[in-house]
Amino acid sequence: FADEKGIRYDVIHSHYWMSGLAAASLSDLWVGAPILHMFHTLGAMKNRIARSDSEREGAYRVEGEKRVIQRADRLIVATEAEKAQLQWLYKADLHKMTIIPPGVDVSHFYPIPKDEARQFIGLEAHQRMVLFVGRIEPLKGVDTLLRAMSCLKFQSVLHPVYLAIIGGEPDADPDEMTAEMVRLQQLCDDLCMGQTVIFLGKRAQDTLPYYYSAAEVLVMPSFYESFGMVALEAMACGTPVIASQVGGLAFLVRDGETGYHVPEGDPSALCDKLTLLLSDRELRERMGKCAAEYA
Questions:
Q1: DSSP code per residue over 248-276
Q2: Whole-number pLDDT of residue 158
Q3: Ranges assigned E (strand) in the chain
Q4: By the 8 A CB rule, do 251 and 271 touch?
Q5: Where are the domains of the chain?
Q6: Has residue 115 got a pLDDT over 80?
Q7: Fewer CB near the last or first residue (10 Å), C or N of the chain?
Q8: For residue 152, which of 283, 284, 277 has the smallest C-alpha distance?
Q9: Long-range pairs for 26-35: beta carbons < 8 A, 24 or more residues apart
């Protein structure tokens, strides 16, 4: 294409590790066009928190990431945590790295009046909603959230509180459903949470601000996040966030100001923070306002 159009590219900007390898090939083809690369996630970090061999990334990915690191002229990282991980796990050159946190489009993600947002998603006046948005995979810690919600159901003063899970394909045929979705739905049944947990599947991007705005709190119980874009989107919509104190979330969520940090994999601690936020409307509103201003 470049040859046909007579185009000369001055820089190659690549994302994720496989695109980084493609960028290296293109740079060679285009006689040294510099490469600007951003990983978003790291295979070595995923492997450190994997709870089974099936969750581990193959050696080919880690080796591919190492090649990209060596070949890239500049590495863009989202946080100090990602910078430290690249240096620690991959021996990346600190002088190659520049921190540029992702932003959020506040013309799209902004606080929508609660009544309007609740009506849009079909939430009735007496219903309260906790929200999760993300891929359905083990490192997202959705099982921790389900166990925390199970604990929460015994706090009678908070009833009824629903958990809406956006992501994955919960209505797929059994032979096409991911193992993690099957596991989570079974856990939901085991915890007798079928009436209060709603697996919504994927939702269109332009509807997400309504879900964020309607929710009383967004939860990100991840074991690993290089940044945590979902948290930033929710904050921009004026919704406080409870998140694991890992990776980018440790920097993005301001504990006690825009939400709370909890230890990863700790349902009891998560339940305590949910109880605190759900039982104090003034606290939620104050944190939501701070979250929107920060985003």
A1: THHHHS-BTTTEEEE-TT-HHHHHHHHHH
A2: 64
A3: 12-15, 35-38, 74-77, 97-99, 128-133, 161-166, 197-201, 217-220, 241-244, 259-262
A4: no
A5: 2-99, 114-294
A6: yes
A7: N
A8: 277
A9: 27/71, 30/2, 33/9, 34/10, 34/73, 34/74, 35/11, 35/71, 35/72, 35/73, 35/74
Q: How long a stretch of residues is the chain?
A: 295
Instruction: Look at residues 202, 195, 146 and name the one whose alpha carbon lies nearest to residue 170.
Output: 202
The reply to whether CATH 3.40.50.2000 applies to domain 114-294 is yes
Domain 2-99 shares a fold with domain 114-294? yes
**C-alpha span between 252 and 135 (Å, rounded):** 19
| Fold assignment, 2-99 | Rossmann fold (3.40.50)
Closest CA to 216 of 259, 246, 250: 259
Give this prediction's pTM. Answer: 0.89
Question: Could you tell me which of 238, 262, 251 has the C-alpha nearest to residue 101?
Answer: 251
User: Nearest Cα to 102, choosing from 260, 292, 231?
Assistant: 231
pLDDT tens-digit profile of 223-237? 999 899 999 999 999
